[in-house]
Specification:
This protein is about 50% helix and about 10% strand. The protein folds into four domains: about 220 residues, P-loop containing nucleotide triphosphate hydrolases (Rossmann fold), CATH 3.40.50; about 70 residues, no CATH class; about 100 residues, Helicase, Ruva Protein, domain 3 (Orthogonal Bundle); about 200 residues, Methane Monooxygenase Hydroxylase, Chain G, domain 1. It is extended and about 120 Å long. It is of the alpha/beta class and about 650 residues long. The protein has a five-stranded parallel β-sheet, covered by helices on one side. Strands 8-9-10-11 form a four-stranded mixed β-sheet.
């Protein structure tokens, strides 16, 4: 018969209010992840309000790129819920040398060390779980024998005591042996006559009690209800009797119940977040990365997990997967303002200085501190590097002349930080941001070449798709001068594959047209690789050429590829080169104007490209970052007879 659960409605109401308060506080401490906080609090409600009703643990997974606040969110939530003493943070790994818990081989052992194997409500965070992959990059299982009970925990929250019977028998055997040894020594000591004139030594308490260390072992192994101190004070005969009675009880062999545990799994899945490798990219608009991560779904997460874990293991993660999007531009701007306000408050508290920071300083920090894929951490260090370090010099000047008001600004044209101290004193500090220095090191002639190359892509992109590309860039934060034309997502069809080939070809062909073929650079090498792959797929994989309808493998060793389809691939690309060149020649005035303006600005947004195109009779649509370029299939289906 199941035990009846008593529900304390007042306690539940109290907890509910606290949970709402925690949610509100977390939203004030994190930027851009309100949707994650909402979902997380919603999913843990039943665990927090009524853990008694749970028959298996709640499992919530957090996935996202680095620096978006996965681990920090869990830690702060734990603190606000006042669960610090019922919380364990665990990093599992297949590598013994890299694991903090390498001296243990089971999750049960880790939880026992944290005092959480008692069946009471607890929170366990398994962080950086991608390092615990059970499949190698080729999909073959690793011969992993460590932490296998992790999967038991995810399954039903029960951790079997597989080795306890053997350990209990061994413990009893050792206890009996050492008890007999101590009794023998005691009897020998008692039989030894005391020399005349000396008093007999008092009986040692060590001989009659088991001590604290052994009491802790005993309590854990035999699942005793007694407190540790009471056990420590017991004599060995009493302890032995208690052990023998307890050994006959089934309870000590029962699985450890973690049905009241909240299990949070966190990790970075590069297989789902394909842009995660762009860690050094400081020039792609943060909103573009956000738009791409916004389209990542539960299906993408499960697919990514299936490349790291066995199918039955993926199933045990459950279906509660919270997906972090990359932070937007305005999220980074809010974060920078938060950090600036902290600096203002700190200087007011420490030096009674009233500090005003102009928005140009925020722009400087953004330009040099935001790497969208790296999340918030570079921003924190950049606020220190750009604002606090230079402010220290200005603060010294203010204190020396007894002034407590500072207005700090940045002059982009003069490349200097300008501070007004008090009513009239001006302090100027020549300053160029670390990332800006790299951008400014770009050689003008090379930037001109890159501007034409990228404008070539943009012109053909606009003509064929009727869209202005999301972003054009010819000055980037890289020692190797390069650029990019950032496209929208394009639905793959027979026609769009042809269009994409022409767009890739356009960069190098624009260089030929403007600078002459002799001055064309090798910057087209990646474009040619993409073009070749698209053309091969067009013919071999998708059968878009009627003459070739068998599936031809892309394996270069396959003779069918070499002797039959290679000639067709070559002819296809040659024909498309001619057609692309014609598009560029017909739009040369637009190409030249776009190239010159890109060279001057270093970067152009979609609306700026569209404005230039309009002057040459091209009406390019401006679509948001999440736009998918796709045919109007539904309209066609609805009207087709």
């Amino acid at each position: 018969m199941s035990r009846k659960i008593t529900i304390d409605l007042k306690e539940i109401e109290r907890k509910k209010k606290k949970l709402e308060k925690v949610k509100a506080e977390l939203k004030k401490e994190f930027v851009g992840i309100d949707y994650v906080i909402e979902e997380l609090v919603d999913y843990i409600q039943i665990w927090y309000l009524m853990p008694e009703v749970l028959s298996r643990p709640i499992i919530v997974s957090l996935w996202g790129m680095t620096g978006v606040g996965k681990t920090d969110l869990v830690r702060k939530m734990v603190n606000k819920l006042e669960y610090q003493d019922r919380f364990a943070e665990v990093e599992l790994s297949n590598s013994e040398s890299s694991s903090y818990y390498s001296y243990r081989s089971s999750v049960s052992g880790i939880l026992e060390a944290n005092g959480l194997n008692d069946g009471k409500p607890a929170i366990v965070l398994f962080d950086e779980i991608q390092r615990f992959n059970t499949l190698d990059p080729d999909g073959n299982p690793y011969p992993n024998v460590r932490f296998q009970d992790f999967w038991e925990l995810l399954s039903d929250g029960k951790l079997a005591k597989r080795d306890d019977k053997e350990e209990i028998d061994r413990y009893l055997e050792d206890f009996l042996f050492y008890s007999k040894q101590r009794k023998k020594q005691k009897d020998q000591a008692a039989a030894t006559p005391v020399p005349e004139g000396e008093e007999a030594a008092p009986p040692s308490t060590e001989d009659t009690s088991i001590g604290l260390w052994q009491a802790r072992q005993l309590k854990k192994l035999f699942s005793l209800d007694d407190d540790v101190q009471s056990l420590a004070d017991m004599d060995q005969d009493s302890v032995l009797k208690k052990m023998m009675v307890r050994k006959t009880k089934k309870k000590i062999y029962e699985a450890i119940d973690h049905s009241k545990t909240l299990i949070i799994i966190s990790g970075n899945l590069d297989e789902a977040f394909s842009m995660a490798s762009e860690t050094s990219e400081a020039d792609v608009d943060a909103d573009i990365f956000h738009a791409y991560t916004e389209k990542i779904t539960l299906v993408d997460i499960k697919s990514a997990l299936s490349r790291k874990f066995k199918p039955e293991q993926v199933a045990r993660f459950g279906n509660i997967h919270l997906i972090y999007k990359s932070l937007r531009r305005r999220d980074f701007e809010v974060l920078i303002q938060w950090e600036v306000e902290k600096v203002i408050l700190k200087n007011k508290a420490l030096f009674d200085v009233q500090l005003l920071v102009d928005k140009h300083m925020n722009e400087l920090i953004y330009q040099n501190g935001v790497f969208p894929v790296q999340g918030v951490r570079p921003v924190f260090s950049s606020v220190i590097d750009i604002l606090e370090t230079n402010l220290a010099k200005i603060l010294f000047e203010a204190l020396m002349i007894g002034q407590n008001k500072i207005l700090i600004d940045y002059d982009f044209e003069g490349k200097k930080i300008v501070a007004k101290v008090g009513k009239g004193k001006i302090v100027e500090i020549p300053y160029v941001g670390r990332v800006d220095k790299i951008r400014q090191a770009n050689i003008d002639d090379v930037v001109a070449n890159v501007s034409v190359h990228e404008s070539g892509h943009a012109v053909v992109y606009g003509v064929l798709l009727g869209l202005a590309p999301l972003q054009l860039k010819s000055k980037v934060a890289s020692n190797y001068v390069g650029g990019f034309t950032f496209p929208h997502q394009i639905h793959q069809t027979k026609q769009t594959m042809i269009d994409k080939i022409k767009i890739y070809l356009a960069g190098g062909l624009a260089e030929d047209l403007v600078f002459g073929e002799g001055n064309a650079t090798i910057g087209r090498h990646n474009d040619r690789w993409e073009v070749s792959n698209l053309a091969m797929d067009y013919i071999r994989k998708y059968g878009f050429v009627e003459k070739y309808q068998a599936y031809y493998s892309n394996n270069p060793t396959a003779p069918m590829d070499v002797f039959i389809t290679d000639k067709a691939v070559e002819e296809m690309i040659q024909n498309l080169v001619v057609e692309t060149r014609q598009i560029l020649e017909a739009n040369k005035p637009f190409l030249l104007d776009l190239s010159r303006q890109l060279h001057t600005a270093g970067s152009l947004k979609a609306n700026e490209v569209a404005e230039i195109a309009k002057q040459y009779g091209l009406d390019l649509k401006i679509q948001e970052e999440s736009h998918l370029h796709i045919a109007n299939y539904l309209d066609i289906l609805s009207t087709e007879k």
